[in-house]
Amino acid sequence: MVTDWEDLKYHSGFGNHFSSEDPRCPNSLPKDQNSPQICPYGLYAEQLSGTAFTAPRETNQRTWFYRILPAVFHEPFSPVKSDLITNQWDKSEPNPNRTRWNPFDIPSIEDEKKDFIDGLATVCGAGDPCSRHGAAISIYACNSSMNDRAFCNADGDFLIVPQHGALRITTEFGRMLVKPEEICVIQQGIRFSVDVDQPSRGYVLEVFDNHFRLPDLGPIGANGLANPRDFETPTAWYEDRECEFIVVQKYQGSLFQSKLNHSCYDVVAWHGNYAPYKYDLRKFVVVNSVSIDHMDPSIFTVLTCPSLKHGTAIADFVIFPPRWSVQEHTFRPPYYHRNCMTEFMGLITGKYEAKEGFQAGGATLHSCMTPHGPDSACYESAIKDECKPMRIAEGSLAFMFETSLSLALTHWSMKSCHRVDHDYFKCWSSLRKHFTGPK
Ligand SMILES: [Fe+2]
């Protein structure tokens, strides 16, 4: 039994083919074949396919589980009502406005017990899990552990960004501790449970099309940004426990639940390359201009989920970590711009460099072609700053989900969460002319 989550062991590397056995059952992985007539220890063999059987070798992902009972052993699914999780984007009017949310509420346990599933609410999204194209952004805010309850997303992959409170995540592959300033990815179809020790909050990016991968590095070379060795995947861990256990499955945007008479975390050994992972954002190797000009934020891409359009992501996960700023005679904050992509930003900790009023645990949305950029105070200060080498974003960590999709907002995010900052547009209302006129 694992008692100390801080001491968990992980497999190192991104996209590797791992082999993992719970040390209590040595040699539980079958030798030389995937599906022997009888598996070691009397285990069942079960494959989890993360790509089509026929996907090209370089993108093909699957894992073989060796488990006490196969996942098929469950009662029929029945619908679960959820007002907060949705993939139906036609329920709200289009809204191109720059939107900022004050920190999302974390429910008090005295008021209402909420676990990760209860506390998951969709903010915005586009596309359709049925046609396997699209993305959704959600907030989770919870105060309780998922006791004998697992979640499984049949619609896509989750990239989870904890902002407040560490998550103790049990998966069919083993366990991982994910703290703020770390992220994890739990792919389509993987059952997992989230335990918390305190009221907790964070952000979730869900993609329907594809799995996340590391961005190409081009002329940067073989190293930099997120290095593959820094990604960590759980090692096999099982429990042989009979109990009333619920699996909640998101399927075509709706929730369903099914009863098991045992814990679903009964995988004694597994091997394969379709497995969840975590990453410590403080290990990101920042690359930037060391001469002039503000580079595009794509230089800060941690993970990308590619679309079929070359070089264009369904969604990128981008961070703005503490770093040196050294560009000469340059307006150093982000430039003013309009973008064919849509930008959702969150703040994990500290103060964001380009704007007052953006708070940790809150968010902003700058939609497709909606103008945005630094606020007036930031502009006035940056044009006077001496461009000497300096540390920026010290003690802070902002991130962006950038998508080629045009996102629709939910009723919860615009109305019922009551967190929209209706004065956000005023950030830019005191911008003044500096035009000197013709000379
Ligand atoms: Fe932008």
TrEMBL record:
Residues 9-281 form the Homogentisate 1,2-dioxygenase N-terminal domain. Fe cation binds at H337, E343, H372. Pathway: Amino-acid degradation; L-phenylalanine degradation; acetoacetate and fumarate from L-phenylalanine: step 4/6. Homogentisate binds at Y352, H372. Keywords: Dioxygenase, Iron, Metal-binding, Oxidoreductase, Phenylalanine catabolism, Tyrosine catabolism. GO terms for cellular component: cytoplasm. InterPro entries: HgmA_C, HgmA_N, Homogentis_dOase, RmlC-like_jellyroll, RmlC_Cupin_sf. Its EC number is 1.13.11.5. One of its GO terms (molecular function) is homogentisate 1,2-dioxygenase activity. CDD domains: cupin_HGO_N. Transmembrane segments: none annotated. Its cofactor is Fe cation. Residues 282-435 form the Homogentisate 1,2-dioxygenase C-terminal domain. One of its GO terms (biological process) is L-tyrosine catabolic process. Belongs to the homogentisate dioxygenase family. This is Homogentisate 1,2-dioxygenase. The lineage of its organism: Eukaryota, Metazoa, Spiralia, Gnathifera, Rotifera.
